[in-house]
Recover the amino acids of this structure.
């Protein structure tokens, strides 16, 4: 065995090697703390996450809330419809996507998924999320607030560091963010939920908390 | 340094012979030849083995083959190797997934889905780790340990009860 053989192995063993993830920027969050506080008042809340599976988040919410955590990764569905060039069929698909009964979840994490949807698809998804959210439940969503349409085709994996910070880790997507939805459209889309908190971050992201 | 390397080599598990498909399913009471056993009572189910039915055991088990039915290793560690394909309800102390699992997984200690591992089913375990690059679809139920602190409740509930009209606020960044 050559001495040089040891070096790649050592690099592989390094937990930070190859994981640019660890160096992804961490951004402050104002709404997450309130989201947690609301869910903390439920005895064993059930939580739906429509973003990608993030182990750290499962651990974080599981340990903080002792909750039942369900992951329904919608980005994969969106990518499939984009690749198959069937985007007009996406609203119909989303309106059948959630087999859960009405009022199943105490909390829903939407992250920025609505930014990747066209208006009809966004409406169809919002309608389903409102349906599966329990009375008194809370929905957390992020919306792009910049007018410029991004050409970058990437989703963001939101990794919760603590209740005040979220790390943003981009990963490949089949389409980029769409034209931002105006505030009034967002409010209408989630009716009859009411907005309890709204924060405009310096990253031009709107953090919104809805209650049923 | 070289001596240490030799030591590591010596402690590595001996290659296991592939288990025949008709071998008894229960791993506990069956006396196994030394060549089939690796250190710390870990038993391997090889790539070519297909088991349909109930698998019970009282030692750690690594599965590289296909299992359909039910797996129960109540006080031991179950490892689904990269080639392992499981279509079963799994109960174990700890479960490490590097292959594919289709079914519900219950662990009394920990479920660990490693990079490349895949679970389609519900997980019940006090600790769950899902690596980046792992696939998971289902529900995670981490029962909170009795007596553990509940940090979420330390957050002032008044913050949650912000039922006032929507107030756009610029957050300090």
């Amino acid at each position: 065995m050559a001495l040089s053989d040891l070096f790649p192995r050592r690099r592989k063993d390094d937990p930070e090697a190859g994981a640019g993830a660890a160096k992804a920027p961490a951004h402050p969050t104002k709404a997450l703390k309130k989201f947690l506080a609301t869910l903390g008042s439920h005895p064993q809340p059930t939580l739906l996450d429509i973003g990608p599976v993030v182990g750290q988040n499962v651990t974080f919410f599981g340990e903080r809330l002792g909750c039942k955590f369900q992951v329904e990764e919608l980005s994969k569905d969106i990518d499939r419809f984009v690749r198959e060039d069937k985007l007009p069929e996406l609203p119909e698909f989303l309106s059948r996507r959630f087999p859960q009964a009405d009022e199943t979840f105490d909390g829903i994490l939407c992250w920025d998924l609505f930014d990747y949807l066209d208006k009809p698809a966004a409406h169809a998804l919002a309608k389903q999320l409102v349906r599966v959210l329990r009375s008194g439940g809370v929905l957390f969503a992020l919306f792009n607030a910049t007018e410029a349409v991004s050409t970058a085709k990437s989703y963001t994996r939101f990794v919760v560091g603590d209740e005040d910070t979220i790390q943003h880790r981009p990963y490949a997507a089949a389409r980029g963010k769409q034209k931002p939805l105006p505030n009034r459209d967002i409010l209408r889309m989630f009716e009859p939920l009411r907005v309890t908190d709204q924060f405009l971050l310096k990253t031009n992201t709107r953090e919104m908390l809805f209650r049923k | 340094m070289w001596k240490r390397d030799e030591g590591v080599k010596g402690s590595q598990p001996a290659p296991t012979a592939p288990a025949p498909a008709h071998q008894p399913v229960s791993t506990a009471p069956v006396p196994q030849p030394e060549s089939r056993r690796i250190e710390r009572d870990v038993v391997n189910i090889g790539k070519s083995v297909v088991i349909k039915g109930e698998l019970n055991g009282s030692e750690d088990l690594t599965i590289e083959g296909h299992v359909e039915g039910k797996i129960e290793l109540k006080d031991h560690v179950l490892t689904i190797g990269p080639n392992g394909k499981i279509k079963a309800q799994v109960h174990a102390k700890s479960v490490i997934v590097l292959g594919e699992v289709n079914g519900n997984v219950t662990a009394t200690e920990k479920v660990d889905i490693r990079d490349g591992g895949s679970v389609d089913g519900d997980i019940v375990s006090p600790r769950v780790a899902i690596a980046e690059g792992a696939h998971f679809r289902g529900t995670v139920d981490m029962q909170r340990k009795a007596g553990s602190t509940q940090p979420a409740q330390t957050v002032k509930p008044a913050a949650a009860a912000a039922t006032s009209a929507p107030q756009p606020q610029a957050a300090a960044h």
Remarks:
- The first strand of chain A starts at residue 26 and ends at 28.
